[in-house]
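Weekly modeling sync, notes
Attendees: S.R. (lead), two postdocs, one rotation student

Agenda item 3: backlog of single-chain predictions. S.R. asked that every request posted to the team notebook include the full sequence so nobody has to chase files. The rotation student volunteered to paste the first one in as an example of the format we agreed on. Action items at the bottom.

Example entry:
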Amino acid sequence: MGGLTNLSDDTAEALSKHEGTLYLSGLTKLSDNASESLSKHKGLLSLDDLTNLPDVLADALSKQGDSDPEEELLLDGLKQLSSSVAESLSKFKGQTISFYGLTELSDSAAESIAKYNGYLWLEQVTELSNEAVESLSKHLGALNLEGLISLPDKGAEYLSKHLGELSLDGLETQLTAKNFLEAKFDRQISSSNRLRQNTLAATFKVHF
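Predicted structure, as returned to the notebook:
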């Protein structure tokens, strides 16, 4: 439903009965009632043009995955993520939350969203503090940080403790990748071993 700019409460209620992928591109805001209705939708829900997520809306959307763990929530239009919104969304029970539009993440928001158990997409975030990386290292599930161009001082040490698939394709320097792998597997690697490591421990997948 690309190009949709307004969604009435009645329409939202009707759409909530649809099962499967639901793209609502064009929507920049939703009423509380419409949000509550869409939380009942079963399947992937994309709200790509929603640039602001009030606490009430975040709380409603966090319930969307309660009935089906295969559900996905795409919030790729968000430019900021407050700690309160992150805390609400961390309760989402579906398999994926995507924040493709985020380029920065505060320490408090990182601490909150790290509580979400599932595939967490933060692939446009370019920098994180030690505190934020430490919080995200405790996240359970796949973690996409492909946008990171460097890790803070203790970032490699913290991420070495992350359990799950980890994507770090954007890391710029060989030294960063070297330090990360040394911390994770406690072994030396050649500084010329640039991008891909295929002999990883069975419990981890790390992408460079």
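Discussion: group reviewed the output briefly. The two ends are 35 Å apart (CA to CA).
Action items: rotation student to repeat for the remaining queue; S.R. to check formatting next week.
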